[in-house]
Amino acid sequence: MAIAVLVLGVATFSMAGLQGEVKLKRMAAQVESLARDSLLQAVMQQRAVTLDLNGGLGTEGRLQVRRAGDKSFRQPLRGELWEFSPTGICEPVEVRVSNEAGEIELGFDPLTGCASRKEVRVKS
User: Fold this and answer.
1) Helix (H) or strand (E) run with residue 107 in it
2) Can you say how many angstroms the Cα of residue 76 is from the centroid of all Cα atoms in its chain?
3) Domain of life here (predicted)?
């Protein structure tokens, strides 16, 4: 009986960690999708589209940014925007999303608006 309770406890703990990792990956996918959609919208409507970085881009966890000239990731400033041009380019920005399960860093290509660099660090 004690062995069964121990196995059940370990399985429950493992499942909780997996749920955090799934949420983390969902947050990163949401940021990637929002960037691609914003670039597409800017091109199709022939007007600049901006995203409010301080709003967290709709993610549930913590969002940090690193722009050209920044040495490290930081909290977005109030009113800090990420601009997508109707010419089909966006500002080069790196985004880090994190929660209790770990963190994912995304480096966005200014010509495609897609994540050209992705680093995943999951806590074990």
Assistant:
1) strand 102-108
2) 13
3) Bacteria
